[in-house]
From TrEMBL:
It comes from the Bacteria. This is Membrane protein. It comes from Granulimonas faecalis. The chain crosses the membrane at residues 7-25, 31-48, 55-76, 96-117. It holds the Pfam family Phage_holin_4_2. Keywords: Membrane, Transmembrane, Transmembrane helix.
Amino acid sequence: MGFIGRWLVTFIATIVTVNIVPGIFAVGGQWVGPLACALVLSLVNVSIKPVLQVIGLPITVLTLGIFYIVINAVLLEFSSWLARAVLGVGIYIDSFGSALIGAIVISLVSMILSSVIGTD
């Protein structure tokens, strides 16, 4: 249940984010948009995120880990754009500030759900 579990956790976290964070909206349906964005976000987190973490390691160390949130926000923006461009559905993010808050919410909800469900 590795990737599927992470995808479902990310899907639930994305739905929570769409409903809580102002400036983030579902495109293409209240369930279909977050589901597509969660799929793209999960794929981006598996493929691109480790590379960006290694590249941004010096800045992350200098900022005591706060730059890691910026990396998450950039990947959320990229995943949102990619889902809408390729699949035609996803989430729309108004500003980078909304993406930053959304990345924090997705991280927190994913962390809590992963510890409760028992995924990686």
